[in-house]
Write a structure and sequence with these properties.
Strand content: 15-25%
Low-confidence stretches: 347-360
Strand order of the largest sheet: 9-8-7-10-2-1-11
Helix content: 25-40%
CATH class of the largest domain: Alpha Beta
Number of domains: 2
CATH architecture of the largest domain: 3-Layer(aba) Sandwich
CATH topology of the largest domain: Rossmann fold
Shape: globular
Largest sheet: 7 strands, mixed
Structural class: alpha/beta
Number of strands: 11
Number of helices: 12
Distance between the termini: 21 Å
Mean pLDDT: 91
Length: 360
């Protein structure tokens, strides 16, 4: 089924605003050594996060399959960034949007969603928290043919979006600099980034290691269920996402949320790189992997979003130093950047169009 002709120009325009982000080289001094960690600069996407990639791709695929029609309501459960993406893209495409999300997410996230015209239904811990948000979204959509429910945690289009865009971009950008990735590291929210990028990079270089990351205070991936509390919004959402296959991953890495906060602060204050707490987490996990593989190893991660969504959160708090923290020993020195070189990486295109096997 083809997309409505009136929407095709909108999808085409939006596709130019999503993806093809720079690959940063973050140069640091760490315990007397000069190091480089590579990170995709995803805060430069349409609404400022990596979730624009999956939201646009899911909508395009849903239209092609006849699962959504002009004017239908988009309903999703989210911890923030995916909701922001669907709110903005829904508005651009003429869809009402209803978002279910836990009530402890940052004020900025909720304000951004509302600013795009979407409705928010907040869910308390007593109502089930994040799992309650998913149940309520499912209940709202049940039996209705005028509602599209993306189901980001179980929708294979999520990982496929990264397999068709983020992964090829990383490979092409490194290749243009004469480099090849040794490892990819990503904190797990839905698991789509780790799965999609990991599959693509391994299709080009089977020895690439792929490490999922979780907060040390809430090791959901390691235990298989919700445990503890943490301050890294957007990851470790109380359960292991169905699209995440830990059996094809390398070791799960754990990063203390306080360490992640300090690292995000240092990236901003030393390099002017305003990123969220999960980006600080990803950077520290990538450095740990580089410690294992060697100082010259090419380790890649993502800076998933910007710091503007966290100004009322713990991101600006004064964190006490701990002996097990890495961030206080890291001196960010400078940035380098590899611009877009992947001409075919567009989220709106199908796997068949770009000649890649879908990641299912």
């Amino acid at each position: 089924m083809l997309i409505d002709k009136s929407l095709e120009p909108r999808f085409r325009a939006l596709s130019r605003l999503v993806g093809n982000t720079p690959l940063l080289g973050v140069h640091i001094e760490y315990r007397g050594d000069r190091r480089v960690i590579y990170a995709k600069c995803e805060q430069l996407n349409f609404t400022g996060s990596i979730k624009d990639r999956i939201a646009l791709y899911m909508l395009r695929k849903a239209y092609s399959r006849g699962e959504i029609h002009p004017g239908d309501t988009i309903v999703e459960a989210t911890s923030g960034n995916t909701g922001i993406s669907f709110a903005a893209l829904g508005s651009a495409l003429g869809h009402p949007v209803k978002i279910f999300m836990p009530d402890w997410m940052s004020r900025e996230r909720m304000d951004l969603i509302r600013s795009y015209g979407a409705e928010i239904i907040t869910v308390s811990s007593e109502q089930g928290g994040f799992l309650g948000s998913i149940r309520m979204a499912e209940k709202f959509a049940a039996g209705r043919d005028d509602v599209f429910l993306p189901r980001q945690f179980s929708n294979d289009d999520n990982a496929e979006a990264h397999g068709l865009t983020t992964g090829p971009e990383i490979w092409s950008q490194l290749e243009a600099s004469g480099l090849r990735p040794d490892a990819f590291v990503a904190a797990v929210g839905t698991g789509g980034t780790a799965m999609g990028v990991g599959r693509y990079l391994r299709s080009r270089h089977p020895k690439v290691r792929v490490y999922p990351v979780e907060p040390a205070e809430s090791p959901t991936l390691s235990t298989g269920h919700k445990v503890g509390k943490h301050r890294i919004q957007g990851v470790s959402d109380e359960f292991i996402p169905p699209i995440l296959d830990l059996t094809v991953m390398n070791t799960v890495l754990a990063v203390p949320d306080g360490d992640a906060i300090i690292m995000a602060q240092r990236l901003a204050s030393h390099l002017g790189l305003g990123v969220g707490i999960s980006s600080g987490c990803n950077f520290l996990a990538a450095l740990r992997v580089q410690e294992q593989l060697g100082p010259d190893s090419v380790v890649v991660t993502v800076f998933a979003d910007d710091n503007k969504k966290y100004l009322s959160s713990a991101l600006l708090s004064k964190e006490p130093d701990r002996t097990d923290y890495l961030a206080p020993h890291i001196e960010p020195v400078e940035l380098s950047a590899i611009g877009p070189v992947c001409s075919f990486c567009e989220p709106v295109r199908s796997a068949e169009t770009v000649g890649l096997e879908p990641t299912t």
